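wait is this the right file?? whatever heres the structure
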């Protein structure tokens, strides 16, 4: 692995290349925040795809693509005399130090080279409130409380959840943020009563064939299942994506077999496809 100096040199070379492209490349010259935004979303999803595949080579490559976009936005802002990459890094550093009073003392916010608590003089308190933070749950609770106190922080607990998040991820984040201020099940097993209750309400509305009410109850049921996943420390988005990929692989197996025997899928019986599905479950383990 590289030293800190080598990492800084590599980042500096990258910024030099970005500056040169912005000045000399016709495509890079014309880019704006608005034109880059769709590509940023695409690059982020490509990174997420590499992460769920655990493809180390692609993770490295896609991280670079996302980093390019981050620095590009900072470069555009620099040209408008709004802020630059140093401001981005400084703001992030201040935020991380401020929100981790169990690791850094508040006096270190603007330090040139802030050191973690073991290197802080003994007369400095290990946390802003004087209490020792030892668990992940305490860290998250402190994080939310500190955000609410910040001048430009969230106005409310849930205001920090981006509106544009995909619905499944948004539901998880909403529930997680509510948990950080104590709004959660005391016993995680109690959530299953809620899941069964929401399923019963969904089934009742489906029987009535009321599409609007059924849609509402379906949302409630999915929300409750996501809540259960969170309580059992399972990521529902990752779980669903793995199931998506598993379904694709098994269905592709059926389709490949249909091509091999010269029988289109639409001409196969459900029983034939189901048999191939079970065959795929064994073959693709």
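ok assuming it is, sequence goes like this
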């Amino acid at each position: 692995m590289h030293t800190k100096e080598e990492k800084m040199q590599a980042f500096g070379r990258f910024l030099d290349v970005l500056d040169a492209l912005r000045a000399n490349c016709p495509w890079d010259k014309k880019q704006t925040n608005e034109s880059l935004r769709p590509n940023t979303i695409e690059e982020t999803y490509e990174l997420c795809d590499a992460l769920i595949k655990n493809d180390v080579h692609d993770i490295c490559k896609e991280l670079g693509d996302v980093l390019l976009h981050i620095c590009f936005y900072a470069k555009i802002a620099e040209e408008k005399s709004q802020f630059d990459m140093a401001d981005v890094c400084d703001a992030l550093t201040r935020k991380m130090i401020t929100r981790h009073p169990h690791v850094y003392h508040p006096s270190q916010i603007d330090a040139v080279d802030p050191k973690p608590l073991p290197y802080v003089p003994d007369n400095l308190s290990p946390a802003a409130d004087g209490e020792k933070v030892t668990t992940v749950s305490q860290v998250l609770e402190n994080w939310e409380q500190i955000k609410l106190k910040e001048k430009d922080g969230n106005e409310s607990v849930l205001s920090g959840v981006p509106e544009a998040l995909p619905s499944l991820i948004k539901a998880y984040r909403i529930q997680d943020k509510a948990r950080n201020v104590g709004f959660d099940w005391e016993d995680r097993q109690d959530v299953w009563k809620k899941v069964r209750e929401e399923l019963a309400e969904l089934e009742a509305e489906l029987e009535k064939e009321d599409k609007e009410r059924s849609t509402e109850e379906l949302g409630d049921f999915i929300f409750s299942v996501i809540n259960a996943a969170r309580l059992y420390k399972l990521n529902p988005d990752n779980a669903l994506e793995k199931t998506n990929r598993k379904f694709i692989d098994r269905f592709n197996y059926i389709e490949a077999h249909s091509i091999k025997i010269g029988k289109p899928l639409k001409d196969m019986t459900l029983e034939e496809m189901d048999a191939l599905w079970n065959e795929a479950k064994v073959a693709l383990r």
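Confidence is low (pLDDT under 50) at residues 121-130. so i think its the right one actually
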